[in-house]
Amino acid sequence: MDADDFEKHGIEMVRYIAQYMRTLPQRSVTSDVEPGYMRNMLPSHAPIHAENFQDIMADVEKIIMPGVTHWQHPEFHAYFPAGNSFPSILGDMLSNAIGCVGFSWAASPACTELEILVLDWIGKLINLPSVFLHEGGQGGGVIQGSASECVLVTLLASRHAAIQLVKPYPYIDDGYVLSKLVAYSSKLAHSCVEKAGMIGLVKMRQLDVDENYSLRGYTLERAIEEDRRMGLIPFYVVATLGTTGCCSFDNVEELGEVCSKEGVWLHVDAAYAGNALICPEFQHLTKGVQNASSINFNPNKWMLVNFDCSLMWVRDRKALTSALTVDPVYLQHEHDDKELDFRHWGIPLSRRFRSLKLWFVLRCYGVEGLQKYIRRHVRLAKAFEEHVRNDDIFDVIGEVTMGLVCFRLKGPNTLTQRLLKKINSSHQLHMVPALVNENFVIRFAICAENADEKDISFAWKVITEAAECLMSSKSELERPGGLERIETLEMSETESEDEVFDRELFDTDLIFDQQRITLRRACERRNLFHRMVSDPKGFNRTVLKALSIDGQRKIRSESDLEDDAADAVRTTIKKTSAGAESSQDCV
Ligand code: PLP
């Protein structure tokens, strides 16, 4: 394909995309294909000879589209929004055309410089303390591929800082410190936090939340105290602003105070809700962020930027880069600056020119346009919440502050599961569930860029019709005292809460029929590994003895080691990372 062909087919492609967006409501939001559907529709080997562009496009409609879940569809209310807009698509087209790999400043100066600039713009917009900015601060922002990566790299940075602290004590092995490290999050934190702990080989404690599903300072403080008493070394905490399950908010102010006092790295994961911080009325949610070491949010969720674009700021860029810097000769350059070559800020070497799409979005919408978009979504969520609250067969779970409403049918979890299954299988709406404490809830997220009141009314109509149908067809309910009987059946005296939970979650007749077994196996595997990593008993005297019999490192006594390591770690982390220098940093 030469430039002329590209121009011709490019115009066709842009027309196809514009038409796809315009006619989305005429498509079914989810597809009803079966796993493996594509195998029979495409050849089993790659084409040997070049094919015609028109033929490829014809197959897009015939083969690809039937299996697409339309995330930009007005009736898509699952997960969180997948950011998307025309300016972002155009910015990304340009980035693809430039096709640079911006791992260092020299590899393509504009790629690094624009990233620095827009990260500072947005940092100021969300009112981050100036220490987090490139401009004048010791920190700075960077674009990562996902919130999961942000959590992982900050965990790795804080782990590195903790291990570094024992360097003056040559008889303490890095591995020994690693075995003592313990990190914390609320039990409602995203699963990527647990995954980061697994990858980082550190113990991860998931702490209880209060009645507002918020992790509080006193809970963290107690956990840290308990763990220090056991000889463990607390080093990393994740506070979530906008949990995935129910969009609740951990108390950053309280957690920040504890982390600052204890010399522990506090990371704030605001993957979805952080986007709303561009509106001043939501900025109180980050009160205390001056005590955090790092924060992230994803414009590719709720700021009209296409995947991937997760923004992360650190207060001390050295603390990050010193954990991630390797420097072969072939990557060094004349203007080498370890702190500004973004390959040292994350896991991959290669980096796309992602700031372009963000820059296009910021310029095409302006801050005002983006604020208007966020506020409309919040208003629509409130309108949906009102429908739910006005119908007494439903409960709203959690507070509705952003664009997410969590609700359930009163009664046992199975009722809500059946309702969700019924709605999703109608392909009229798409929503996904969550488990919020013991409640199985349906999450209704406002996702489409131009969502409006009509979409809310339509969704509510589909939901209430399905609920009525479910209630009237439920044979148990037709008999006297049906609902009460189901409620008491929910947990018999001999059954543990876990068994009930399990039975309900994995009921063969209910949702996820096909994925149930795989999902369960994955959970079991994960739990086993998680237990191996997290169980402090795994680090017992026998293991330690075995480690020291090579005669190289004579451990004086276990308690000496614990004291030395814990003291060293506490002092250095305080110096290197979390310590809130001052609250005058606020811009
Ligand atoms: N953190 C939170 C609070 C989330 O809601 C999500 C995803 O929804 C993630 C992290 C993971 O995001 P990513 O897919 O960017 O890794």
How would you describe this protein?
By secondary structure, the chain is of the alpha/beta class. 46% of the residues lie in helices and 10% in strands. The protein has helices spanning 3-22, 53-64, 86-98, 109-125, 147-164, 174-180, 191-200, 217-229, 252-262, 299-302, 317-324, 355-389, 413-425, 453-473, 475-478, 482-489, 497-505, 516-534, 541-548, 558-576, and strands spanning 140-144, 181-186, 203-207, 233-240, 265-269, 294-297, 310-314, 394-396, 404-409, 432-436, 439-445. The strands form two sheets. The chain has a seven-stranded mixed sheet, sandwiched between helices. Strands 8-9-11-10 form a four-stranded antiparallel sheet. Helix 5 (147-164) packs parallel to helix 7 (191-200). The longest helix has 35 residues, at 355-389. It is globular, with a radius of gyration of 26 Å. Mean pLDDT is 84; it is low at 482-519, 521-558 and 575-587.
